Amino acid sequence: MKERQLLGIHGLLPARVKTMKEQLFLCKLTVDNYTTATGKYLYLNDLMQRNEKLFYKLLTENIEQLLPIVYTPTVGLVCQRFGFLFRRPEGIFLNIYDKGNVQQILKNWPEKGVKVIVVTDGERILGLGDLGAHGMGIPVGKLSLYTALSGINPKACLPITLDCGTNNETLLNDPQYVGLREKRIGGERYEAFVDEFMEACVEEYGPNILIQFEDFGSHHAFKFLEKYRHKYCVFNDDLQGTAAVVLAGLMSSSRITGKKLSESKILFLGAGGAANGIASLLVMGMIRQGVSKEEAIGKIFLIDADGLVVNTRTKGDLIGPKKYYAKDLNEMDDLNAIVNNVKPNILIGVSTKGGAFTPKVLKSMAAISKRPVIFALSNPTNNAECTPQEAYQHTEGRCVYASGSPFKEVEYQGKTYKTGQGNNCYIFPGVGLGVMLSQMLHIPEEVFLIAADTIAENIKQEHLDKGSVYPPITDIYNMSGLIAEAIMKYAFEKNLAGINRPESIPDFIEKHQYSTSYEDALRPTWEIPPLDTKYDMEKWDPPKSFC
Ligand SMILES: NC(=O)c1ccc[n+]([C@@H]2O[C@H](COP(=O)([O-])OP(=O)(O)OC[C@H]3O[C@@H](n4cnc5c(N)ncnc54)[C@H](O)[C@@H]3O)[C@@H](O)[C@H]2O)c1
Ligand SMILES: O=C(O)C[C@H](O)C(=O)O
Ligand SMILES: [Mg+2]
């Protein structure tokens, strides 16, 4: 009542003051009443705009049910229909004609304490291809997970879409397309635009603004990561976040298969951003287990749309990092034939090709290995290379399975399996929290090994027994805190942190996490103390609207 009077809203609301618990009950009922995933998405999206704390409380308390709505797979559908569904600004669109004015446009974002940006240019949205400006759903979804899965204040998060056109003919001819209606502008002009964007972010938000690249075409993903990683606080989620979650899953798979990663042969269907990102971290993981870099590379085989990646290709290219994994083998393009030739015990799908792991392929994997590892990581759900049901059925229940999008529990021969979601959402929220709080200026690759180790160390036998090589989704928030703690320790040890080491790192993390409680409305959770400044609630000046 006091707050209503202070805010001058007394009389605008009915007399009854509901508790958050009562409000949550109503929200849950409403979400459940929507029969379509997009209906649920739109309701949640409205709630996020209307009552941020209630939205995040609802999301965190029902994360298993609602993650597939605000994230993969529904977010993919939302991007595909973005022109119909766009209601209000949720991030910044920078189009290539804004070149020269990028910083000025960033100033239009109403929140000033931005600490984390997720940026896409929409060229490779999940496995759905080039969705141009309609890719905005992805940075919005990723950043809502930064809050729900690691407690970064939503006010510190800024989704950005760089609109440089699209090569998607359907969208170009779609009256509802809301982006620039022209073919992608690439080359030097595009790169100069991205350069200006990076500089403008630092000018506007400071040198340790964390910038996550998301769903760029793989050529640009590799290029920008190499170009910016030593200059800015930047990482690429599709390359590095994905790599960490897969390494974690493979480390836990070893507990089931009894085979170390360095003793494995790994075949990737797909040789783009995700495959190369994963392969590179797996090499680091294998080197730790005592094999040489050359040996580790020798255990990794890639297949792209033109077949097995071999040195003497007549079909297909050897452009980008995939050339490091090219083998002196004959050209082959049939997956089953390749499986029988290479004889991998681990098969990883990052191809965007739904159903590519056919019964024949799965049976071959089961014939080669007692406990084959099958990761069908392409998103959204329809793009998964196989479902858990198919994987168990065609490997006589012997496989270790994970998918990028969530699947319901499955039954096979009387046993119920709850397979894990090998998705980078286990990694980026914790990495973001740790990097942001330690105020690092750059993100070394070891950070992703640390994140992978933290997840792997926290997988319990009971989860493995149920068929999951990952902790339950409901544990991600805790995992993110642990990842952040491990990253902060590393940052202090390596002198990479921009703040002095706090007395207790877990307390420091907790103190800076977003609170969904109404009582904590005045808590300035997104403030990060400048160098060597003790945090002092007493001296904090609350926003004027509350005084
Ligand atoms: N689970 C996760 O966390 C996660 C993370 C990143 C990417 N992904 C998914 O992985 C998929 C690929 O992502 P990316 O960034 O590597 O994309 P990409 O476009 O960079 O690479 C796709 C690769 O698949 C190959 N390919 C296409 N069709 C093929 C076919 N029929 N047979 C064999 N290979 C084929 C392409 O040649 C290319 O090498 C997407 O669906 C994406 O959603 C999942
Ligand atoms: O967005 C996801 O669900 C994972 C990943 O970043 C992807 O691009 O598929
Ligand atoms: Mg992605």
UniProtKB/TrEMBL annotation:
Its cofactor is Mn(2+); Mg(2+). One of its GO terms (biological process) is malate metabolic process. One of its GO terms (cellular component) is mitochondrion. Residues 239-492 form the Malic enzyme NAD-binding domain. The keyword Metal-binding applies. Divalent metal cations. Prefers magnesium or manganese. It comes from Brassicogethes aeneus. Pfam families: malic, Malic_M. NCBIfam families: PRK13529.1. SMART domains: malic, Malic_M. This is Malic enzyme. One of its GO terms (molecular function) is metal ion binding. Residues 48-229 form the Malic enzyme N-terminal domain.
